[in-house]
TrEMBL record:
Coiled coil: none annotated. InterPro entries: DUF112_TM. Residues 20-437 form the DUF112 domain. This is Tripartite tricarboxylate transporter permease. Keywords: Membrane, Transmembrane, Transmembrane helix. The keyword Zinc-finger does not apply. The chain crosses the membrane at residues 20-39, 45-71, 107-132, 138-160, 167-184, 204-223, 314-336, 356-381, 393-426, 469-487.
Length: 492
């Protein structure tokens, strides 16, 4: 059965009334979250994890997908209107979008962002439909040494690319690896780093770490930098989308999609890099370069398309290899684990209804988001009038209730406070958060695959470089680590 047949079955799942309701809830919630500065999809999904245990897995992931895509749409609203990106991927949109709003063209900027998000999201989801099964088939030939090499590539990519310093990136990664080994060693049965606390024998729940870093650490950081004088959103004004705007936007939409989707599939690719590349490319190709820095519509269309295409690209390694390439993907992987599911090639055969229902829901969610964002943008702007102290306080209370409701453990609450404060310190000193999550999630997987490979090779370390796949991944990892250093040397 080919991908189109599976996709048709997925639409049969996604179009069920209950799943349509969850798709709409996720899309609306994601848009609202994207509009509110400082609150992203990773935080939202992390907060929803404790309260979605009673929901069927397919319905939950359809809602999470709506949150992911919706946040990409909503993040452009604050970038354009108040020059405050609701999402990291919307930073480049703010450069030209806010200038357009100040020049009385806010409506056109919001329109090109929404339509570009729809076009890129749909095309990227189409690519996901055909690429993901192919990658999943390739994953069946992976051996333990190949998976170990793949995790090493992920570690190097995330630590080097994310954040302003590779030293900070690797420190964050090792913190995550340290958290990941807490608990009983599965092979020997010996406790590790539990310090005699019995509640830590099962390890630290990923949900606790997610909520701590995002709900506690991020909110403390955002609240500490809150300035009441900035709460002055601009009104949506000016002409709507004209024919000239369309002529100047459709090529950037397509180019942004081509840049964003493959970058999203790479470890550490995220949404920041493709949006920057798209902005730079549009500036070079534009027939109106003099408008850049003063409100060029190409500078909104391209980055927004790249942003949404990257969001779909993130799902390829997550669904096919169980490899999270961003903070949001790490949270989604935790959601899979909460339901006792392990993303990877076997997920496409053992849970085909969930996977293809999820992919089909992305098409439906894109249509919902276009309808929600174009005519209702004024409604989303009103969310910016919510007093920030009450908003941040409510999120912290909701986080504590969620963690207590899952475990009922005071140790988990204490761990949440400690990791939350550590997350705040990390944000203050510009330590990236994503490597912590990816180190915690992939660390045990890397350890297990390393042990299995060495056991099969009777302790011979050369078993780790016996296959072309593992050699290729390790060479790329070395390149990711050393090539930027060599380029800096050459520039000097």
């Amino acid at each position: 059965m080919d991908s189109l047949q599976y996709l048709m079955q997925g639409f049969g799942v996604a179009l069920q009334p209950a799943n349509l309701m969850w798709a709409f809830i996720g899309s609306a919630l994601g848009t609202a979250i994207g509009v509110l500065p400082g609150i992203g999809p990773a935080l939202t999904i992390a907060l929803l994890l404790p309260v979605t245990i009673s929901i069927a897995p397919t319905a939950a992931f359809i809602m999470f997908a709506g949150v992911l895509y919706g946040a990409m749409y909503g993040g452009s609203t604050t970038s354009i209107l108040i020059n405050t990106p609701g999402e990291a991927g919307s930073m480049m949109t703010a450069l030209e979008g806010n200038k357009m709003a100040r020049n009385g063209r806010g409506a056109a900027a919001l329109a090109t962002a929404a339509i570009g998000s729809f076009v890129a999201g749909t095309l990227a989801t189409l690519a996901l439909t055909f690429v993901a099964p192919f990658v999943a088939e390739l994953a069946f030939i992976f051996k333990p040494a190949d998976y170990f090499a793949l995790t090493i590539l992920a570690f190097c990519s995330v630590a080097v690319v994310m954040g302003s310093s590779r030293v900070r990136g690797f420190i964050s990664l090792f913190i995550g690896l340290g958290i990941g080994v807490i608990g009983i060693d599965r092979m020997t049965g010996a406790p590790r780093l539990t310090f005699g606390v019995t509640d830590l024998l099962d390890g630290i729940e990923l949900t606790v770490v997610l909520v701590s870093l995002f709900a506690v650490g991020e909110i403390l950081f955002v609240a500490s930098r809150y300035d009441p004088g900035q709460d002055q959103p601009l009104k949506v004004s000016g002409k709507w989308f004209t024919r000239e705007d369309f002529d100047r936007s459709w090529k950037p939409w397509l180019r942004g999609t081509v840049i964003g989707f493959p970058m999203g599939t790479l470890p550490g690719g995220g949404s920041e890099i493709p949006t920057m590349l798209s902005y730079t490319l549009e500036r070079k190709l534009s027939k109106h370069p003099e408008q850049f820095g003063h409100g060029a519509i190409e500078g909104v269309a391209g980055p927004e398309a790249a942003n949404n295409a990257a969001a779909a690209g993130v799902l390829v390694p997550l669904l096919t290899l169980g490899l999270p390439t961003s903070a949001t993907a790490a949270v989604l992987l935790a959601a899979f684990q909460n339901y006792g599911l392990q993303p990877g090639p076997y997920l496409f055969t053992s849970n085909a209804e969930l996977v293809w229902g999820l992919i089909a829901s992305l098409y439906i969610g894109n249509v919902m988001l276009l309808v929600l964002n174009l005519p209702l943008v004024g409604l989303w702007v009103k969310l910016l009038s919510i007093p920030k102290p009450q908003l941040y306080g409510g999120i912290l209370v909701f986080a504590m209730i969620g963690i207590w409701g899952v475990s009922g453990s005071t140790v988990d609450l204490l761990v949440m406070v400690v990791i939350g404060l550590a997350g705040y310190v990390m944000r203050v000193y510009d330590f990236p958060i994503a490597p912590v999550l990816i180190g915690m999630i992939l660390g045990p997987m890397a350890e297990n695959q390393l042990r299995v490979a060495l056991s099969a090779g009777q302790g011979n370390p050369l078993v780790l470089v016996e296959t072309p796949i593992s050699i290729g991944f390790l060479l790329v990892a070395v390149g990711v680590f050393f090539v930027p250093l060599l380029l800096k040397r050459l520039q000097r």
